[in-house]
Amino acid sequence: MASNGSDRPPVIGITTYLEPATFGIWETDAAVLHRVYLDCVRAAGGNPVLLAPIGDWRAGTIDWLDGLVLSGGPDIDPRHYGAAPHPTTGTPQPARDAAEFALLDAAIAIGLPVLAVCRGMQLLNVALGGTLHQHTPEVVGSTDHQPQVATFGKTHLTVDPRSALGAVLGASVPALCHHHQSLDKVADGLRVVATAADGTVEAVELAGARFVLGVQSHPEQNADDVRLFAALVRAACQRRGTR
Q: Domain containing 217: what range?
């Protein structure tokens, strides 16, 4: 008997980097992603699918997805929020910016659950009209959020217990982070639901959405705690059940 699809794991698309890479005998440009994202989605009960930063991404071409993860990565081109580049801002990656703005727009249009991680949260804010601090150490006076190259800092989140994030994580939780940019002006429609002790915005939720959550930290780096990914998978299952 053919399955109606209700018994299959939800398909969770995850955005990828477009970077020079070396594997096997090859040195070439490749669409790549930290494996931990895949492991967390799978451990949470979803089927992870990699989404290339190249393609025709709109509502009619992503309706086969059940959920979306906007992964971390390089700085967003500041022209998207009307700013000149800071000396520390990374080289723009227009293909990835364009692909992820399109994916996010399509996901919101069709009610797709979204978990936006680090760069992903920044992109969510910019897409909806917000701006970014281009170098957070100048704002908070420390490099705690990005202590060294390829090293995750430790921060502590104070979470609004009335929020969807609070329902998942509770009112206080440790987190791993690696970012030198952060939210400045918060976009209309986004609600700040977690902050760090230094005032850095650590999480936002989109008002009126089924599940659109941005986190500045990196939950995928703690494979022993997949609660946020599990919440995304639950929202994906709920959406599929109502279609």
A: 11-132+182-242
Q: Which amino acid belongs to residue 62?
A: I
- 175-231 residue pLDDT tens: 999 999 999 999 999 999 999 999 999 999 999 999 999 999 999 999 899 999 999
User: What secondary structure does DSSP assign to 151-178, as a single string?
Assistant: B-EEEEEEE-TTSHHHHHH-SEEEEEE-
pLDDT digits 0-9 by tens, 114-126: 999 999 999 999 9
Structural domain includes residue 47: yes
| Residue 138 a catalytic site member | no
> Which one is catalytic: 179, 205, 218, 237?
218
Q: Could you tell me if residue 20 is inside a domain?
A: yes
In a domain, 73, yes or no: yes
Assess whether pLDDT exceeds 70 at residue 4: no
What's the domain count of the chain? 1
